[in-house]
Amino acid sequence: MAFDGTVIANVVHDMNKVLPGSRIYKIYQPEKDELLFIFKNRKETLRLLISAGASLPLIYFTSENKKNPLTAPMFCMLLRKHISNGRILSVSQPGLERIVEIDIEHLNEMGDLCRKKLVVEIMGKHSNIIFLDQSGMIIDSIKHISSQISSVREVLPGRQYTYPPNQGKIAIYDMDPDWYADVLLKKPVSIQKAIYGSLSGISPLLANEMCYRAGIDGNDSAASVEGDKALALYGELGRLKTWLEDGRFTPNIIYQGNEPVEFSSFRLLGQSDREAVYFDSISEVLERYYAEREVNTRIRQKSTDLRKVVGNAIERAAKKYDLQAKQLKDTEKREQYRIYGELLHTYGYEVTEGQKELTCTNYYDGKEIRIPLDPQLSAMENAKKYFDRYNKLKRTHQALSGLVEETRQELAHLESVSNSLEIARDEADLSMIKEELTQYGYVRRHGQGKKGSGAKSRPFHYVSSDGFHIYVGKNNFQNDELTFRFANGKDMWFHAKNMAGSHVIVKLETADQLPDRTYEEAARLAAYYSKGKNAPKVEIDYTERKNLKKPPQAKPGFVIYHTNYSMNIEPDISGITRIPDR
């Protein structure tokens, strides 16, 4: 998670596509350290959010409006006075620093054409938004930095603007072989730290990615990188420089399960064990990443009660199943007691008074058998005793067989709900899970709430490398919907064998059959969205949708099939393109 210089470069690249020539339509200051600009050009209206917050400084295009104070703060009023209806000339980034400069042309009070500059510094707790005149003099800033706060640089009205100190770093654009060999590789630190400590705008995440691509362990010392390894790393840094110069960005978010853990403007090959979702713009990445982080935290909190309900129910069902299974196993002796009784009826005449055991031939298998006897009882009374035991165990077996299967199905159902909670992404997902638990009596229904009210939960949507659309159910209701309403008879269905997991549907559309690669990718998705996602390999069943049936009164998500194929596959979904929810 790094809002580094390369991400800023991506933001600036996107801004330069649409902003030059646009006019500033409105300026708002929703928070004390945040601005929202609305631009208009001939084609569209654009909203640019700029935050200099110490905890979360940002700059990106957004589709959302924010609530604004009734009275605009002084800095906002100043900007409105000077640059309302101003025209954007250009957007730039000095070097690869975390700085964005927006050049603005406007008419002053006398009608003369003037130029101003808005400088956005995205630097953690030192972030700022600074307004300059055409000579570089500070008109004002959203944060005032006096000499008492910083002895390095003052940011106050009337002072000449200077860039923050670069801490001895250079831009990757200025890197040459001599500097690489004599400076970067001579640093007395790990090679990863040498990269981000020597090149401005490079985060530890990206530095580690460069090492990974070069086949180097980022924790190795810089001095140990020599020969072919040094050449490979220099080549990767050169490639990064070319990508930045050409604007070849690939904005993406890296997910660990259902949680976004990293974002970047370039493909992170070193994160191939995690799921990557790609976007058209870096603004989409930033807006979604931080929104999902916030939602994910909220979802985790909101799902706590449901997780507790399901966990307790699973614990109770598991204990009940173990007890019933043990009792059922004890009934396996019933046939032996029946045979004892029948043999005593046949050979009882050989038993003498007070005898403790009868040895005779078992006419069912021809082998010799020993039958324990109660010496206080006659042969017929012993036979009756064994028949009584047999009948009792027979009745117990008949009763328990149904109960064990019922408890097993309940446990399987609860495990599937638990899996659904693991992959829930939003409140709509939780709502469906809660409704399912309510229908089956695990959660009490309060009031007259409507079923399925609110936003609709949608399945995960992927596209295979061969262009086939793949859908993954997030919960049991959705699994039923996908399998029995959405899918056609010829569509392919995938599911983890004998364990809780999502139904995965591959739409064939007009194709007659799937390529092998799509089969494997769908199976990987079925493995990943199952209870076996942490196993090295998971066995996956797959078949045509028409081969599936849902038994009467079966719980949601439960199907039966007798015609299928199977494959063992790793639960790795890296490289499979996910279509973001809209």
What can you tell me about this protein's structure?
This protein has 582 residues and is α+β, with helices and mostly antiparallel strands. Helices cover 36% and strands 20% of the residues. A seven-stranded antiparallel β-sheet has the order 20-19-17-18-16-15-21. It has a five-stranded antiparallel β-sheet with strand order 5-6-7-8-9, covered by helices on one side. A four-stranded antiparallel β-sheet has the order 1-2-3-4. The longest helix has 45 residues, at 379-423. The protein is elongated. The chain starts with a helix and ends with a strand. The mean pLDDT is 91.
Which descriptors would you attach to this protein?
582 residues, alpha+beta, seven-stranded antiparallel beta sheet, five-stranded antiparallel beta sheet, 36% helix
